[in-house]
Amino acid sequence: MVGGIGACRAGAVCPEPAAAVCLFSILRFELEREVGSMSDSSRPKRIGITLGDPAGIGPELALRVASEWRRGQEAKLFLIGDDRLLGRVGRALGLEVPPSIAAEDMAKTSLEVATVSIEERALEDLVPGQWSAATGAASYRWVKFAIESAQSGLLDAIVTGPIQKEAWHSAGVTFPGHTEMLAEMTGTDDYRMMLTSPEISCVLVTIHVPLADVASVLTSEEVYRSVKLAAASLSRSLKRPARVAVCGLNPHAGENGLFSHFEEEKIIAPAIQRARNEGFLVRGPLSPDTAFVPAQRTETDVYVCMYHDQGLIPLKALSFDDAVNVTLGLPIVRTSVDHGTAMDIAWRGVASDKSLRAAIDMAIGLI
């Protein structure tokens, strides 16, 4: 996820340790077919964790999780970033920095946790909580390295820390966020962002599109592909047909054109009918203001939402600390925290690591 300063906080530290969330067992979806042969099940999985924007909370969350990792027989963690930066964070918060190893040693190290250092001299003057072009360039390079390592087989999965979109833009990075970068680097055309938690799962038809432009870029084909990918993915993991709820775009799902330009009738409904004709269990378009009430959620395995905030507002209201971002359709396993950089509390030791732990657990389950 991309976080704004002060806008995407990661909550206070929970006094209880985050437990593995049972949803991971139900999300062994389409990625199994595509990446299942990448990893030898007899060895620990290799998980790469990118630090996110170095001025934000990503580095401290990675260090905290690494310092408490005792599951080396199941998975090894590799923190991908600058070890000197991690040293600063560690000294500030009393956290130990994992030993540094060369990238090629990830496949043979006996360490449970390690740092793969990609040094960024431009970060020497970094001020916690203040993003810049330099922090954007660093976080971008760390993600690029992680993707390439997963493609080469050095990593079995990647878990991405929160980036600062403005910092990427300032550094000249043209990708709006992780998802688009992953799709281009892996040559994936049909992909979707899914945000998931024990309470709710949402797949987005459009991602980082300004609200004023959503209606103009929305197509029946994209809605249909979103429904199909969401349904196929969840059906595999649930071992039964997934129940998909599709949200309308407009207030009250348009009220037959009264509050719309007939997007529901011309774009969304045909996509739903097409999916039904192929045997998927789909209902909608639902009025967005009542789509996420408890009675609807008990009848729904996954929602298909027309735009970013339509899905993320209910998800974060219900599951801010333990939601996970998963990219559907990729040939590699990638999960992510579902919070931003929280620049206003960076390097203070008060941010919750529950979402990062959940993202790691899910990545392990998807390998």
Describe this structure in words.
It is a single chain. Helix content is 35%, strand content 15%. By secondary structure, it is α/β, with parallel strands linked by helices. Strands 3-2-1-4-11-10-5-6-9-7-8 form an eleven-stranded mixed sheet, with helices on both faces. Strand 10 and strand 11 (333-337) form a beta hairpin. It is globular and about 60 Å long.
Keywords summarizing the entry:
367 residues, alpha/beta, Isopropylmalate Dehydrogenase, 2 domains, eleven-stranded mixed sheet, disordered N terminus
Derived from helix and strand composition plus strand pairing, the structural class reads alpha/beta
Helix content: 25-40%
Number of strands: 11
Largest sheet: 11 strands, mixed
Assembly state? single chain
As residue ranges, the low-confidence spans are: 1-38
Find the CATH topology of the largest domain: Isopropylmalate Dehydrogenase
CATH architecture of the largest domain: 3-Layer(aba) Sandwich
Domain module tally? 2
